[in-house]
Specification:
The chain is α/β, with parallel strands linked by helices. It has five domains: 205 residues, no CATH class; 152 residues, Rossmann fold; 71 residues, Helicase, Ruva Protein, domain 3 (Orthogonal Bundle), CATH 1.10.8.60; 168 residues, P-loop containing nucleotide triphosphate hydrolases (Rossmann fold); 73 residues, Orthogonal Bundle (Helicase, Ruva Protein, domain 3). The chain is built from 31 helices and 18 strands. The radius of gyration is 38 Å and the shape is elongated. The N and C termini lie far apart (92 Å).
């Protein structure tokens, strides 16, 4: 049996051929069931006066009358429970009936029930014969008692087996293959007289309909097949996942694959399923659980859909699985265990309740792609859309090192970057452009707990002493090459924790701390978020820790730079515990220490009072950059650098005098320069900023600083 591109079974290439094959199969099924019905009719003369305890109707007709409806030219019928070569051949024949049997793990008896119910749907003459065979012309469908007689015959054990196959807990009813009775039948209609029918979806499937169950719209989709060549995962992990998906005897696979967002969990499952010749029915767990009161019905339909296609069921939706309450979790686990075919659940993290609830569950952890794997994913993604020539090897290595994205995010980022380049008619994609696309793939809500700052400076704007600049360059280089140091040069073994980039920026106000944070953000291509103390600190016990947890949790997914301004207020020294207030204040600092050590991103702590920061933070922070008040030569350079090219500045300004006379940091010099420009603008748009403007503006700024110039 071949399979279509969508993963659905195909029964022949041309549509007409497939329809002909399906019709032929149903013709054979109807022929077999005709034989069962003839055998039943020949028993009616010696049949008892009651069926399953229910008296026969006085309108019952004789076997000879019903037999005249049937074609008398066929061979002598075999008993429904006896050896019938036509039935054996039909079961062995590849087709939809065999697919249904294999996919739903139906036994001999269950298949006979399905055959008995599909035959009159296909053959109108057989439907008419059924109507004469039972003893009540007001009924339009066969009841349980009729199926017991038709399939079970006179054998008490066979009759009991048919009754058991139609019980509520049997597979036919659990996965909604056969529907028995109605809600109003309970305690009103005897079990043997309750009507039976195949579900519409099963009838449609056996008649050639490959559409998904409309009741599962939005919940279930057919996942496209994937090739193992597309999967960039360590061979050992692929081999482990392949073993996990292999059935163990008669027990179908029950597998949990967990790993971070975008690491390729679904793609690996699709590729291994395709390798095994199985389509994949993907279930959105969030949508599935949106109506908890309908969980049993929906899970039954999911199992039926997967079984009809001989598919693997992939339950996808990490957050929904992790957040299930105890009662619903146990119910979901029980329904998963009842699903006939192989089942895989994917999650970002292992739900604690899952393993105890499903003892046969096998777990496979899919690690985040390494630096080399990310480089390979970028190359493949760019090549797939014809963009390999647009990006240099150096840019690919740099972007792979800076953004630890998974395969799905890398593919989307590559597609966006290439489409934007073609829109601009660019013949190459540089690092900032590729970085912008990569950054847009990050899903986080850091903006709800921090304030984003757009970088507005260039390195040429930074005027600092050489030794300070050297430390800033060292910090920048470490952030750039950290991934290669850890993974390619083996430093991961020496740093089991504390692999993030952290720095204390200490110095008086206006000396360039925030500017350095912005320049680092621009250089690395990361967003810069300032942590506002007002949004974090809370007077109620434990609330500050909760707010900080939200900050760090969101930052893990953002590749953002966390910038704690006025850090000495939050990272203060721990004190001797003399009251409950001291104890809770120390708890906040202890929590920050723990999160700082485990956070793998970039953290900057800016402070005007370094001695106020706890020594434990200083020991764990990788870099400390001191920002001193600038000396006269540096102040002179700062004055010169403050004015844009568009501003007109008098050529006779005595920059050295300004730098020597006014002891101001860069922040205050910038304010004074803007002040002077505003005074000049008052004289006209074409006015020139003079030395007098600058001198007066500096004196006014000096006065506001509390100094006398």
């Amino acid at each position: 049996m071949s399979r279509s591109a969508a993963g659905a079974p195909c029964y022949g290439a041309p549509v007409a051929s497939a329809a002909s094959s399906t019709s032929s199969e149903l013709d054979e099924l109807a022929g077999v069931v005709r034989g069962w019905l003839e055998a039943l009719l020949r028993r009616t003369a010696r049949a008892p006066d009651a069926v399953e305890g229910v008296p026969r109707s006085r309108y019952a007709v004789s076997a000879s009358e019903v037999a005249r409806i049937l074609d008398g030219q066929r061979p002598a019928p075999a008993a429904s429970g006896g050896a019938d070569p036509r039935w054996a051949a039909l079961r062995a024949r590849p087709g939809r009936f065999a697919t249904l049997a294999r996919g739903l793990a139906l036994g001999e008896l269950e298949l006979r029930v399905v055959a008995a119910l599909i035959a009159p749907e296909h053959d109108p003459e057989l439907e008419r014969a059924y109507a004469f065979a039972w003893d009540d012309f007001t009924r339009k469908r066969p009841d349980v008692g009729f199926l017991i007689e038709l399939i079970g015959g006179d054998d008490p054990a066979a009759r009991a087996a048919v009754r058991a196959a139609l019980a509520p807990e049997a597979v036919l009813r659990l996965v909604r293959v056969v529907l028995v009775g109605a809600a109003t039948d309970t305690d009103v209609t005897p079990p043997a007289r309750r009507s039976t029918r195949l579900a519409d979806r099963v009838i449609g499937f056996l008649q050639g309909d490959d559409g998904l169950d409309p009741a599962l719209d939005g919940v279930v989709a057919l996942a496209p097949p994937a090739e193992l060549a597309e999967v960039v995962v360590a061979p050992a992990v692929v081999a482990m996942a392949r073993r996990a998906l292999a059935p163990r005897g008669d027990v179908p696979a029950r597998v949990l694959i967990h790993g971070g967002p975008g690491v390729g969990k679904a793609m690996l499952v699709r590729a291994l399923a395709h390798e095994a010749g199985l389509p994949v029915v993907r279930v959105d767990v969030g949508e599935l659980l949106r109506a908890p009161d309908r969980l049993d019905e929906r899970m039954a339909r999911v199992a039926r859909e997967a079984g009809l296609r001989g598919a693997l069921t992939l339950f996808h939706g990490a957050a929904a699985l992790a957040e299930l309450g105890p009662g619903l979790a146990e119910r979901f686990a029980e329904l998963v265990r009842r699903t006939p075919g192989p089942v895989v659940m994917s999650a970002h993290a292992r739900p604690a309740w899952l393993t105890p609830a499903i003892p046969e569950l096998v777990e496979v952890e899919l690690p985040a792609p390494s630096l080399r794997e990310r480089i390979e994913l970028w190359h493949r993604s760019l090549a797939r859309i014809g963009g390999a020539a647009l990006v240099s090897e150096e840019v690919v290595r740099a972007i792979a090192a800076r953004f630890a994205l998974g395969g799905a995010s890398i593919r989307r980022a590559a597609e966006r970057a290439v489409s934007q380049a073609r829109l601009r008619e660019d013949d190459h994609i540089d690092l900032p452009a590729l970085g912008e696309s990569a950054r847009l793939m990050l899903q986080h809500r850091l903006g709800t707990v921090a304030r984003r700052i757009e970088p507005g400076f260039a390195w040429a704007d930074l005027v600092l002493p050489e030794d300070t600049l050297d430390t800033i360059k060292e910090l920048t280089n470490f952030a750039k090459y950290r991934a290669a140091l850890l993974e390619e040069w083996g430093w991961t073994k020496k740093l089991p924790y504390g692999r993030g980039v952290s720095a204390i920026l200490a110095g008086p106000p206006g000396t360039g701390k925030t500017m350095v944070a912005q320049l680092l953000s621009r250089e690395l291509g990361y967003d810069l978020y300032v942590i506002e103390l007002a949004q974090v600190v809370n007077k109620y016990v434990g609330e500050t820790e909760k707010n900080l947890a939200r900050v760090f949790d969101e930052a893990e997914n953002s590749h953002a730079i966390l910038f704690f301004d006025e850090a000495d207020a939050l990272f203060a020294k721990r004190t001797e515990v003399k009251s409950s207030n001291d104890r809770y204040a120390n708890l906040e600092v202890n929590y920050l220490l723990q999160r700082m050590e485990t956070y793998n991103g970039v953290t900057l702590l800016a402070t005007n009072l370094e001695q106020g920061i706890d020594e434990a933070f200083k020991r764990r922070v990788r870099f400390t950059i001191q920002f001193e008040m600038p000396e006269p030569p540096v102040r002179t350079a700062l004055w010169k650098s403050m004015f844009p090219l568009e501003s007109k500045v008098a050529p006779d300004v005595d920059w050295e005098r300004l730098g020597a006379r006014f002891e101001m940091s860069g922040g205050y010099i910038k304010k004074a320069a803007l002040r002077a420009a505003a005074r000049a603008m008052h004289r006209g748009v074409d006015a020139t900023i003079t030395g007098a403007d600058l001198d007066l503006a500096a004196q006014l700024e000096y006065r506001e600083m509390g100094r006398i110039g």
